[in-house]
Amino acid sequence: MASTGDAFLDEQIALVGADRGRLMDVLRAVQTRYGHVSDASASAIAAGLGMHVGDVIDALSFYAFFSRVPAGRFQIRLSRTPISRIHGADAVAHAFCQALGIAMGETSPDGLVTLNWTSDIGMADQEPAALVDDVVVTALTPEVVPAILAALRAAIDASTGIPSPGNRVPLPHARVHPNVIQAGPLLSRAARRGDGIRAALLLPPEQVVARIAAARLRGRGGAGFPTALKWRLCRNGPDGERHIICNADEGEPGTFKDRVLLSDFADLVFDGMTIAGYALGAPSGVMYLRAEYAWMLPALHDVLAARRRLGLLGGAICGHDAFGFEIRIQSGAGAYICGEESALIESLEGKRGAPRDRPPFPTEHGYRDRPTAVNNVETLACVARIMENGPETFAALGTRESTGTKLMSLSGDCPHPGLYEVPFGITLNGLLDLAGAPDAGFVQVGGPSGRSVAPKDFGRRLAYEDLSTGGSIMIFGPDRDVLDIVLQFAEFFADESCGWCTPCRVGTALLRDQMAHVAAGRATLRDIGALESLAGTVARTSRCGLGQTAPNPILSTMRDFPERYEARLHAADFVSKIDLVAAQRESAALQGRHPVEELF
Amino acid sequence: MPLGTLQFTIDGITVQTQEGQSLIAACDAAGLYIPRLCYHPDLRPAGNCRVCTCRIDGHQAAACVTPVRDGMVVENDTPQLNADRLALIEMMFVEGNHPCPYCVASGDCELQALGYRLGMTAPVYPFFWPRHEIDASHPDIFLDRERCIACSRCIEASRMPDGKSVFSYEGRGIAMHLHVDGWGGLGATQMAAIDKAAHVCPVACIVIRRDGYRIPNGQRRFDKTPIGTDIEARRKAPPS
């Protein structure tokens, strides 16, 4: 292997065996070490992995957590969601800006901090929250800000000019509460690790699939695809190697169930992955962990090491000579779209997270073109429970179409935000009563890509056959500005669109801009009609679920809260979307004249 | 029917074709035009413009990336689908800067031609007025990213037929744009004017220098007949 001339880089490239599919690991290592990935590093990485620089730039420039220009010694990323802003994120941001003398998106003059907004970081129950490098700080107030910055400064002063990584700096408010408010059969009992695996190994693999089928388990990410069917399709795929991937890229704003499962029930999830590996005949599995959860990596690696000692990982698992299984954790780098399974696979292969067209489905041609089953974290935890307790016990709860319990992440205007394990089929009213928020103005079920539910529909049931959801439940009080929240969701999708297809790339940006006009009271009746029409086109023609669901908040609130839109309408027939004076400013300046403002 | 042959219907017309074809290729061969932009018959379909979206067995899907299945029922020429296609074309117009009246590609531009075919008058969306670098570093090829519609034809052509990987993307979302491999612009790459990648651009983003006005305005591909006419001409007259 040719040397890149950078010993650290050579070491990283050797660590991944110069496998270009592991580009993400190399980029992440360089980003962590140098604070950015320079053009020179990109060239060296390309040479080391035997790829074109353009392909490195393609991936590098796609992910929010990689930067190509030098940044501050610490990256502070404040979570910006309707929930964080309800709880005062703007004031916290203002306090950071004041204390550092910079605006959001800038680096402090002393090079200490680069300050940015970021999408949801999985802390909706303890907002405002932020990432300081890989450390999470929660329940922030403007008063905490000076102490955090002082701790960062002290960390640098104490060293010999070499920046200390943020994950070794003790910070105030660096605590994450599990916040399990109501536990059920999935979260309650501390099972002996490996019980589910031992039960599975007593059966032939196809019988394991049959038990999952008997439990009628469906995917917990929200789409509800039957897990046993996915596994069968994968088993029936082309002969040879198969892959099991645990989707821990929990990016839907408002959800944090995987955070709790991975921090407190990691063995259960790894049990589920191992059982899936046995059922599918996959010798190894990959957990794709979102970058926002990188703070869990050391603990997860400890769990894996313990499992290896206990014979639950590696060769001859539980003494079963014919079955060995390895697990690797792959970190993401800040891209909501990578929660979509084919985008996740692209990212795992070291590329930009652009979804694939289907067919072929991942169960036929997935990771490295092999049959691949991508399962949600909660789904795999359910798999372990089904093998431990039997499919009948599992299917005894819930409804006919939606068996078992579901983890609901509740946040927003309620006295007890946190994780609630409830049987499928519970009404939204029932859930709101549990959370002590009976008088909600509206509830966003399933995150921005889900739908807003008005009080008249609070009797609807949370189940695949009615309100299907991955479990994000954002509660908004009656006085909240619906249109402003919808605008924030529109901004989210425009930020997270991968850009591959026209309707999503251009459409989400247009939806954001048009919704801003509506929220600002500049939209006419005709504009509202055009917005609805545009939303329909984006939903119908986008390539993947992101674009197809991006218009949901707009369309569902237009339907359920028409009075909010009407109240904000501009009375005129036509309002120009172009500021004509501003549009002329540059040409006027070039020609040395002054715009005649009063004409407009 | 011989082995491997299958049939489907599109707008009520029955088409017989071979297994393994994409819907758009099967329809092209049968002389049935599905509006499209990023699709190029010589390149692997990328499915990014979505103009060829049809309703297939009740679901929308892009015809270029949908394999034909026996018995599939396709809707193509419907008011809803054509309205969506028009909206997509308008999105591409406002996303970039497309001054048709004085553009070198006018009359030979697939975006412009589709705008005409689908009945576009003026885009209803506000323009983004992007500012992108112009790359004039190559002696024979000129690259104007403001015209790019992110169809990825040049990326694909540079990879597969040319084997050079001159192009890729950079960034994401509305900020995504064409990236040229390396750091010295197009002039520092292996790209040559005879490359496939230099001849597949549907607009005037990649332009061959000293070649633009060889065919005068008024005598170009789409000046006489609308885009898709060549495909429709393949269809035998329907039995009366």
TrEMBL record, chain A:
<feature type="region of interest" description="Disordered">
    <location>
        <begin position="349"/>
        <end position="370"/>
    </location>
</feature>
<feature type="domain" description="NADH-ubiquinone oxidoreductase 51kDa subunit iron-sulphur binding">
    <location>
        <begin position="483"/>
        <end position="528"/>
    </location>
</feature>
<dbReference type="InterPro" id="IPR041921">
    <property type="entry name" value="NuoE_N"/>
</dbReference>
<protein>
    <submittedName>
        <fullName>NAD(P)H-dependent oxidoreductase subunit E</fullName>
    </submittedName>
</protein>
<dbReference type="InterPro" id="IPR011538">
    <property type="entry name" value="Nuo51_FMN-bd"/>
</dbReference>
<dbReference type="Pfam" id="PF10589">
    <property type="entry name" value="NADH_4Fe-4S"/>
</dbReference>
<keyword id="KW-0479">Metal-binding</keyword>
<comment type="similarity">
    <text>Belongs to the complex I 51 kDa subunit family.</text>
</comment>
<keyword id="KW-0004">4Fe-4S</keyword>
<keyword id="KW-0408">Iron</keyword>
<dbReference type="InterPro" id="IPR019575">
    <property type="entry name" value="Nuop51_4Fe4S-bd"/>
</dbReference>
<dbReference type="Pfam" id="PF01257">
    <property type="entry name" value="2Fe-2S_thioredx"/>
</dbReference>
<dbReference type="InterPro" id="IPR001949">
    <property type="entry name" value="NADH-UbQ_OxRdtase_51kDa_CS"/>
</dbReference>
<dbReference type="InterPro" id="IPR036249">
    <property type="entry name" value="Thioredoxin-like_sf"/>
</dbReference>
<dbReference type="Pfam" id="PF01512">
    <property type="entry name" value="Complex1_51K"/>
</dbReference>
<dbReference type="InterPro" id="IPR037225">
    <property type="entry name" value="Nuo51_FMN-bd_sf"/>
</dbReference>
<keyword id="KW-0411">Iron-sulfur</keyword>
<dbReference type="InterPro" id="IPR037207">
    <property type="entry name" value="Nuop51_4Fe4S-bd_sf"/>
</dbReference>
Automatic annotation (TrEMBL), chain B:
<keyword id="KW-0411">Iron-sulfur</keyword>
<feature type="domain" description="2Fe-2S ferredoxin-type">
    <location>
        <begin position="4"/>
        <end position="80"/>
    </location>
</feature>
<keyword id="KW-0004">4Fe-4S</keyword>
<dbReference type="InterPro" id="IPR001041">
    <property type="entry name" value="2Fe-2S_ferredoxin-type"/>
</dbReference>
<dbReference type="InterPro" id="IPR017896">
    <property type="entry name" value="4Fe4S_Fe-S-bd"/>
</dbReference>
<comment type="similarity">
    <text>Belongs to the complex I 75 kDa subunit family.</text>
</comment>
<dbReference type="InterPro" id="IPR000283">
    <property type="entry name" value="NADH_UbQ_OxRdtase_75kDa_su_CS"/>
</dbReference>
<dbReference type="Pfam" id="PF13510">
    <property type="entry name" value="Fer2_4"/>
</dbReference>
<feature type="domain" description="4Fe-4S ferredoxin-type">
    <location>
        <begin position="139"/>
        <end position="170"/>
    </location>
</feature>
<protein>
    <submittedName>
        <fullName>2Fe-2S iron-sulfur cluster-binding protein</fullName>
    </submittedName>
</protein>
<keyword id="KW-0408">Iron</keyword>
<dbReference type="InterPro" id="IPR036010">
    <property type="entry name" value="2Fe-2S_ferredoxin-like_sf"/>
</dbReference>
<dbReference type="InterPro" id="IPR016214">
    <property type="entry name" value="NAD-red_Hydgase_HoxS_gsu"/>
</dbReference>
<dbReference type="Pfam" id="PF13459">
    <property type="entry name" value="Fer4_15"/>
</dbReference>
<dbReference type="InterPro" id="IPR019574">
    <property type="entry name" value="NADH_UbQ_OxRdtase_Gsu_4Fe4S-bd"/>
</dbReference>
<feature type="domain" description="4Fe-4S His(Cys)3-ligated-type">
    <location>
        <begin position="80"/>
        <end position="119"/>
    </location>
</feature>
<keyword id="KW-0479">Metal-binding</keyword>
<dbReference type="Pfam" id="PF10588">
    <property type="entry name" value="NADH-G_4Fe-4S_3"/>
</dbReference>
